[in-house]
Amino acid sequence: MNGPVVDVHAHALLPGIETYVAEIDPDGLAAAKDLDARRNGRESSIESGRMIQDRWSLLTDLPTRLAVMDATQVDVQMVSPSPSHYYPFLGPDAALDVALQVNAAIEKLVSRAPDRLVGLGVAPLQHPDQMVPALDDALRRGLRGVEIGSFGASPSGGQAGTVELSDPALDPFWAAAEKARAVVFLHPFGCSLDERLDRFYLANTVSQPAENAVALSHLIFSGVLDRYPDLVVVAAHGGGYLPTTIGRSDHAWRVRPEARGCTHPPSTYLRRLWFDSLTHDGAQLTELIRVAGADRVLLGSDYPFDMGTDDPVAAVRHAGLADDVVQAILVDNAATVLPSLSIGFTKKGFA
Questions:
Q1: Which of 56, 63, 185, 347 has the fewest CB atoms below 10 angstroms from its CB?
Q2: What is the pLDDT of residues 19-30, one digit of tens each?
Q3: What gap in Å lies between CA 53 and CA 248, rounded to an integer?
């Protein structure tokens, strides 16, 4: 590869944060864990516990992370917190407090390997008024932006308290992110379908792509990308179901007046977004490239979770893509999303 290979979808677990949240809101954390267990079902909850235990060092130990990166030919990771650190049940002050602590923990991690890691913080989507302070804090710490979920759930629960990405209350956040050219990494955690997905691991296999599709549709149809055309939004999991079914969205835009909140057909906005390459299927990755453009797809592994890929570079190389497209996904597109990479990082053996 001509330049550093960059993985934009990699996670870190921050045990100290969970301990702190357990101290300040034990009831809220217990209720959230109960909801998560009901959403996933008993069988998947047990298996996920085993998976985290088996991959604990991958999530928490820096030398282990760097060794895996070397073995898989990844030069740079953009590290975001595990989405389990969203804590949507926290009230406004506590949510901002915890977000700042998450930002500080990610800053500490990436500062230990500044030639290999860049970081993302978090912003509490359930409290739009707290998102700009959280973003500002992340940027002050040298992080590249923030990770957010697909919707913000009110601490009191219920559909009435849900914050969607189309909510006008998020406009100050979008404006601040656009002005700073900060990365907003869209990564779902949890699903409003709840117990309907409590078996067969549907809580992940269906919920993640469904939540991506819903969140991106709110972003597109509401006109957010018309108002903030230079937003840098990176969607995990290849954008979920939306890119491969975008024709239905375009049809609705043409025939339904209530679907005309955006200026152009929805498919055109896919070329204003970025997507990671984690589709688990070469044909789906090819379709994503067709509808979004080869210049809009970035390498993503979901390191180190079992629903990611243990060899992300090989997955892209084996997808049957042209050499220039592989170069774009592995290297070139990251230089657009993270422009300082071309200055601050060098590939081993590459001058």
A1: 63
A2: 999 999 999 999
A3: 41
